Amino acid sequence: MPEIILGSIVLGLLLSPQLLAGFLAKRTGRNFWFWFFISFLIPIISLIILIFLEDKNPEAQSYKLAEHVDKDKGLASEL
């Protein structure tokens, strides 16, 4: 029984760069499985590449402004 627990901990540690790359790719709007498998070939380099790539997720690119804020002037003219 201790071998199973120790084996699962070691397997989790060995797969951590791949899982991190996959979840980072998913968060930035890229394919999880592609970056998961790429990370087996180049684990640390793939993480560095993902950090510096531009975010493809349109929801994460900007915040929605409040209705009273004018995009051009900063604040609405009625204030």
Characterise this structure.
This protein has helices at 2-27, 32-41, 43-52. The protein is mainly alpha-helical and 79 residues long. It is built from three helices and no strands. Helix 1 (2-27) runs parallel beside helix 3 (43-52). Keywords: Membrane, Transmembrane, Transmembrane helix.
Task: Spell out the key features of this protein.
79 residues; mainly alpha; 58% helix; elongated; transmembrane; transmembrane helix; membrane
Classify the helix fraction into a percent range.
55-70%
Radius of gyration: 21 Å
User: Which assembly state applies to the chains in this document?
Assistant: single chain
Rounded average pLDDT:
81
Write the layout of secondary structure elements.
Blueprint: H1 2-27, H2 32-41, H3 43-52
Keywords: Membrane, Transmembrane, Transmembrane helix
Transmembrane segments: 32-53
Summary of the model, kept short:
This protein is mainly α. Helix content is 58%, strand content 0%.
